[in-house]
Amino acid sequence: MEWSRRILFSVMCLGFVSCFSALATNVSYDGRAIKINGERRVFLSGSIHYPRSTEEMWPELIRKAKEGGLDTIETYVFWNIHEPIRRQYDFTGNKDIIRFLKTVQDAGLYAVLRIGPYVCAEWNYGGFPVWLHNMPGIELRTMNTVYTNEMQNFTTLIVDMVKKEKLFASQGGPVIIAQIENEYGNMISNYGDAGKQYLNWCANMAESLNIGVPWIMCQQSDAPPPMINTCNGWYCDDFTPTNPNTPKMWTENWTGWFKNWGGKDPHRTAEDLSYSVARFFQTGGTFQNYYMYHGGTNFGRVAGGPYITTTYDYDAPLDEFGNLNQPKWGHLKELHLLLKSMEKVLTYGDVNTIVFGNSVNATVYNTSETSSCFIGNANQTSDATITFQGTQYTIPAWSVSILPDCKKEVYNTAKVNVQTSIMVKKPNGAEDEPSSLSWEWRPEDVRDTTLQGKGTFAVNQLLEQKQATNDATDYLWYMTTVNIDKQDPIFGLDTTLKVNTTGHVLHAFVNGKHVGSQWAKIGGSNFVFEQKVKVNSGKNLIVLLSATVGLKNYGPFFDTAPTGILGAVELVAKIQNDETIIKNLSSYKWTYKVGLNGEERQLYDVQSHKKWYTEDLPINRMMTWYKTSFKAPLGTEPVVVDLQGLGKGHAWVNGQSIGRYWPSFLADEDGCSIDSQCDYRGPYSDSKCVTNCGKPSQRYYHVPRSFLHDDENTLVLFDEIGGNPSFINFKTITVGSACGNVHEGKTLELSCQGGRTISEIRFASFGDAQGTCGAFEKGTCEASIALSVIKQACVGKESCTIDASEANLGSSNCGSGITKRLAVEAIC
What is the Cα–Cα distance from 588 to 576, expressed in whole angstroms? Predict the structure, then answer.
């Protein structure tokens, strides 16, 4: 058929991109599309952030993106990891953006470089280095000379690096589009005239860099020409560029949502995501990017928020570990290949829309050579049966049907005809049980230091935490001495320590004893700590440890949001009739220490030779370091460490940070669906289709294979609030079962990832089988030989392909009014 030949040609063309990589590419645009060497193109892009994976993972992630039908990879540039100290740069390891772009180029794909350099991205401080905050006279994201000088310096540095390696398309490289600033249009009104001046300055500065490819500004309706305004969101079909001479571009189609500590697991269905894409192209879009296509992991302290988890899976088509997230990946792949086959008619065809009513319409793209059609049903509850060009079609609610020849429906967003993979966590083949791990420990050294009031500097005020730490650590110690003699009004009275803090976590000590800990609720960082304390006659030492859990990354003036203990800090004593006497300590002399002694001594480094203890392993003891050795799990499948039983802290494997952990923070009990199914119909939000109620927000933590040695490995933990390491174990992530539930006339491909084979067909029925993956049941009719045919085709193989037809599977003996489907569950 003509449409299938066009799909095949489009796939072949993807492989030819690299053939022209040595030649300069002219990238331009008009009101219809981005143009490559004068030809309008359809672009299907996906976000993969280089520091949220490892350099060893990049080729495989990009290969799977290409195999999934993408032709472009999009990434932010993360200023704070590249310039952690002013004018000291780091582009090593997974921070090597040039290597990442070359990996994209080697795969024959294009790239979109979102320099920003503000990124948001649920990334610590929005990607800004915190030393910016501490520069005298600076104001971020506005017309401020101190800031614009630094922003221009970093942006120019990145552009010059990319130019030097000839990676812009104008030089024969993969980068076809660059971005300056990021979602500033959502904030600009808060910055007044200075914000408008800054916007224009950004545009002029970017243009002056002469990169030879277009610049974009997402979410910027007043983007100064020649900047292109683009859309971000769950749906962008209604988006229209302010400038009619720029194409309709979608830079962030949110494939799911991020997760925070105390939050549930968000999911976005394959049906709804594909619906949003099809609607966008139905309504004239020609560039679409998934945010995220691979979300990855917030290694180290890069998670923002506050309270963004270490996992950044995002329910993306490639999961946190790089596995195919099925059916999302496969359902989108089918859509991508179809859209690519329609590229000419979508970018050059005349467009006509036919309105049927009740939220149903058809869009016809027509050239002298061909016609392609979309039929969309935006009704959230009712399927629609219409007659279009003499043929009757039934379009499910909240779906789009695509007819590449305007005759036959080849794809419908609500009809998923690819496998669903059920992922499982297998026990570590190299270790028997958690008890096989032998633990060492040592306390965080506070008894002779901070709990004695010993710090490194002192001032007569409470300091903002970013100012004091420069974000070199999550931790800042505040210490002061209160002298109370017998004549003091609060002597002998019931006394409460009251601390107003904008930090995220607070631990309080009085006279060397821990008196309490408290942390903010989800989404907030302001709280008041109150705890009854015993004060003595004479000197009383008040020690407060403030801990951050990712700095704010979004909102107007987000950079000025205070962190740490800014007061007031008070001793409140009750007298008769509920009256109180308040001793305000805020302006006392405060001594400070930045970070932990264990951080300073690098206890997480495998080369550290500090003394560790092997006897009397403490559990549920705050401020404790733990260390153990383990063997890498067998095989090549992704590895996770199960940190169930721990409190809150940080973890390192062989000296490399795998991020913050907080398995003791449970998600809310309420808000999850009663069953595992989610109705894809109707607008998506991050509160729809959530799971994991009442369970740890994150229990499993990614340990990249490249972090591991073949022989012995070291896991080091710092637990801040107390936990039990005895339950810790390592597992691998793999496909446990692969299910399909496809319509008659379609072809089902079943596959086990990682080179594993199908060991068993647990269920197979061709007829009117009922239920879902893991709970299929036979219906009223089925083909009697279907099970044996499928077993013969699949068992013992890594993958198999099955035509859902009576010619292949035998007669189903189903009545004419029954819609036949093939349901299969295969065990990997």
Answer: 28
